[in-house]
Amino acid sequence: MNLSRIPQLKYTDSNTFFLLCGPCAIEGEDMALRIAEHVVTITDKLKIPYVFKGSFKKANRSRLDSFTGIGDEKALKILRKVSETFKVPTVTDIHTEQDAAMAAEYVDVLQIPAFLARQTDLLVAAAKTGKTVNIKKGQFMSPESMQHAVTKITETGNEQAIITDRGTMFGYQDMIVDFRGVPTMKQFAPVVLDVTHSLQQPNQSSGVTGGRPALIGTMARAGIAAGVDGLFIETHFDPANAKSDGANMLDLSLLEKLLTDLVAIQTTINSL
Fold first, then answer.
1. Is the pTM of this model over 0.85?
2. Which reaction does it catalyse (predicted)?
3. Is 74 in contact with 32 (CB distance < 8 Å)?
């Protein structure tokens, strides 16, 4: 895996973590551009390699009436506009083999949702696009088993694979991150910690996923200390009214202080 092969990814020689960050879902053009502009300003200041994240479609919802998107092509065109406007790469989730080819026309990184990390046809379809593929570790999978997910990408002829840990189910309504898995998975591909989804509290009786956003800083600092290569953080300027995953997103106003602290931690680790 070579970060510099991701189009428009800046600061790849900055010797710090890379960042996948943005809203859970694309709710509209104005919100996407507003969030992207804010994050780009911060990451340029701190020289953090940055990929804008936004789901063009949310297929894994608890309830039938949950928000799933504003329309596939409309959302993908917004992702392209973010990339063209701010000269940054973009990443989005895909859920079917058909999604892979469609999304690849608009974004630079294809993300495999955790609950689909074992779907061979989906991983192969993503790999065949030639795009970087970010595989989220299934909440039900061991770190060791992610070797096989990565192999599905590489044996298709694509060396651009990333693993993202988003926690492991702990009972029915909580997640834990086992940081012992970081060095294990780094043997197979660069490892990203999904800070915000690791703090989800899924399967609530209301059908709306809960979360513990007050621990985002704690989780992110632990990830950097454990040696992850990148961080995944969902953020929104109004989490309480976000259409998806608002309960575990970081308020956009808190992002700069968090990233500044994390870069300082990374710099200290690099000096040891």
1. yes
2. D-arabinose 5-phosphate + phosphoenolpyruvate + H2O = 3-deoxy-alpha-D-manno-2-octulosonate-8-phosphate + phosphate
3. no
For residue 122, what is the enclosing H or E element? helix 120-128
Q: Closest Cα partner for 166 from 114, 244, 100?
A: 114
For 190-202, b/e burial (b = at least 16 CB within 10 A) is: bbbbbbbbbbbeb
DSSP H or E segment with residue 92: strand 90-93
Kind and range of the H or E element at 51?
A: strand 50-53
Tell me the average pLDDT across 94-114: 98
Query: Up-side HSE of residue 34: CA atoms within 13 Å toward CB?
Result: 13
pLDDT tens digit string along 154-166? 999 999 999 999 9
Considering only CA atoms, which of 73, 104, 65, 53 is closest in space to residue 231? 53
pLDDT in tens, 199-256: 988 766 565 567 788 999 999 999 999 999 999 999 999 999 999 888 889 999 999 9
Higher pLDDT: 172 or 265? It is: 265
**Fold classified for 3-9+17-271:** TIM Barrel (3.20.20)
What pLDDT sits at residue 201? 81
Per-residue three-class SS string for 5-28:
HCCCCCCCCCCCCEEEEECCECCC
Q: Are 76 and 56 in contact (CB under 8 A)?
A: yes
- Residues 228 and 178: their CA atoms lie apart, in Å, by 12
